[in-house]
Design goal:
about 300 residues; TIM Barrel; 8 strands
Length: about 300
């Protein structure tokens, strides 16, 4: 099976909720539509920002189904896979295939921290659960499991392993990967405030987080880098950088949902154990958001 060439902006989206923590699929669909209209190349639901680990199994499938129905084949729809057991992860991928997903973004095992042998076994086993293409999400900062460039070299024989979401926060990895495996994988950056640095080094795509709240500017920034218009890209990047940095905090879900609320693209409600931010922290984040939006490019 020929693998698709995933390139461009693939935002990892929030899961919209009501104040009582129930899913708000209508609001979720409206947000999906706004992102699609901005020119994105793909959509990733139920990732870390989508609160995957706090959703019930049927809710994850409902969010994925909502995204597929909203996209109507216009762009590929991927789902995050964030499970504690190999069995649960494989089952979810098989159900996603039946629902019509285009592929997956697979995280390492949740809770248990695998050693390198176990990490490879996890990804190799899940690769066999479905023939659909998938992206390996490498985030040792958040999940304490590191897939090194040398490990990606070893995993290169997996036929449906299509792409890498590289979120180690070490931009050296991009060049190291290119030197080791060439163009074997599509490389996506997953750290918003390292986007421009990563673009210069040569990436194929961007799994953005904070940009879901200002999708038109976010898409423009991507296009400027594709066109080599670096002076303009730097200017837009400097404007967006304080907002992008909201994606690098332990409260990144609350921060980005609050950012979406301030730009009219959602509400801040999260699934517990996350609680809305309050007090001085809330005022500080709102100041960052409102100061940036007051200077929003025309």
């Amino acid at each position: 099976m020929a693998l698709p060439q995933w390139t461009g902006v693939f935002p990892a989206v929030v899961t919209q909720m009501h104040e009582d923590q129930s899913l708000d699929l209508a609001a979720t669909a409206r947000h999906f539509e706004a992102l699609i209209e901005s020119g994105i190349s793909g959509l990733i639901v139920c990732g870390s920002l989508g609160e995957n680990q706090c959703l019930q199994p049927d809710e994850k499938r409902a969010v994925l189904k909502c995204a597929i129905e909203t996209a109507r084949g216009r762009i590929p729809v991927l789902s995050g896979v964030a499970e504690m057991s190999t069995c649960a992860a494989a089952s979810y991928m098989q159900d996603g295939e039946k629902l019509g997903a285009s592929g997956f973004m697979v995280m390492p095992p949740m809770v248990y921290k695998t050693d390198p042998r176990e990490t490879q076994h996890w990804f190799r086993t899940l690769a066999k659960a479905t023939p659909l293409p998938w992206m390996l999400y490498n985030n040792p900062v958040g999940y304490h499991t590191d897939v090194t460039p040398e490990m990606f070299f070893e995993l290169a024989d997996i036929p449906n392993l299509q792409a890498i979401k590289e979120s180690s926060a070490n931009t050296r990895r991009i060049t190291e990967l290119r030197n080791l495996v060439g163009s074997r994988y599509q490389i996506f950056t997953g750290v918003d405030d390292l986007f421009l640095e990563s673009a210069i080094l040569g990436i194929d795509g961007w799994v953005c987080g904070s940009g879901i709240a200002f999708p038109k500017e976010n898409q423009k920034l991507w296009e400027l880098t594709r066109q080599g218009r670096w002076d303009e890209a730097r200017e837009l990047y400097r404007w967006s950088q304080p907002l992008m940095k909201l994606d690098t905090h332990i409260h990144f879900v609350q921060y980005i949902k609050l950012l979406c609320q301030e730009t009219g693209l959602g509400r801040e409600w999260c699934r517990e154990p996350r609680l809305p931010i309050t007090g001085a922290e809330r005022e500080q984040v709102l100041k960052i958001i409102r100061d940036a939006l007051a200077k929003r490019p025309k």
